[in-house]
Amino acid sequence: MNPLFAGIQILRPLNMILSLFAVFIAAWLVNGITSSLLPYTALVVLCFAGASNILNDVLDIHIDEVNRPDRVLSSGRLKVRDALIIMSVLYALGIMATSYLHPLGRQIALILVLPLLVLYTPLFKRLPFIGNLVVGSILGLVFIFTEGAITGHVDKMWIPFCLGTTLSTIRELVKDAVDMDGDAVGDLQTFPRKFGLVATLWLLRILTICLCLGASIPWFENWYGNYYFILLIGAVALPSLYAVFILLHESSGSNDYAITAKVFKATTIGGMMVILSSAF
């Protein structure tokens, strides 16, 4: 494979596009879509997301040889040294870009988000459910960071933060159920490995019910309109409930969870549309 293509693939472009989409949605909702600070905000998110994806792949290379043997590093298509160079450049570029933002946005990026990204794999990933919550919060924090970076304050993006965090946390928990064999190689005490798939299923069900009920509150309180509620039901609530109550059952194995992970990936994209619809 062409080294350039391998270098792009290790960044996980689809995940970066999802993060960029969140930036533009947040900017739209805070009336900052034409702000001169938006390009720097997007650059910080893209650089931090890409660099952190590389860091995770470098630290998890032995686990990925079991769980994801087709990934760029585990398959040998890109050298670890080259990956570290790309990662360093991206982190440096992202940190420099924060100097153009409002101080609050810079503080969120450097004091909160960056440490979570860097410490996730060596520290938080080894803590059952805490690791899922940390990595799940990263998508939610994109909304908080974007508002702080562009406007200098944070007061509108807390609901999108909660929705994005909960959806991502559920998806990460499902992915841990899929990756149990590889995680055993690295002796990672993820929630599914420590407590089993039955306990994982019930935690997923509880979180999904909380998500559906909690995300409905803005509509019942007349904070958001009918478009929000209709999309919430169709793009998030029904697919999520179907996944954890119909697709999954107490005898489900890794293949069932792999299918469910794809459902929640689509549901996360649907959640973005739900957040965007809150403007109407």
Walk me through this protein's architecture.
The chain has helices at 3-9, 13-29, 38-59, 61-67, 80-97, 103-119, 130-151, 158-178, 180-185, 191-220, 226-247, 254-277. The protein folds into 2 domains: 1-153, Tetracycline Repressor, domain 2, CATH 1.10.357; 157-280. The protein is mainly α and 280 residues long. Helix 2 (13-29) crosses helix 7 (130-151). The protein has 12 helices and no strands. The N and C termini lie far apart (45 Å). The model has no long low-confidence stretch (mean pLDDT 92). Helix content is 76%, strand content 0%.
Q: What are the secondary-structure elements, in order, as H or E? A: HHHHHHHHHHHH
CATH topology of the largest domain: Tetracycline Repressor, domain 2
Number of helices: 12
End-to-end separation in angstroms reads: 45 Å
CATH homology superfamily of the largest domain: UbiA prenyltransferase
What oligomeric state is this?
single chain
β-strand amount: under 5%
Largest sheet: none
C-alpha geometry: globular
Which spans have pLDDT < 50 for at least 5 consecutive residues?
none
Instruction: Give the strand tally.
Output: 0
Q: Structural class, judged by helices and strands?
A: mainly alpha
Total number of distinct structural domains: 2
Helix content: over 70%
At the first level of CATH, the class of the largest domain is Mainly Alpha
CATH architecture of the largest domain: Orthogonal Bundle
Mean pLDDT over the residues? 92
Alpha-carbon Rg, integer: 19 Å
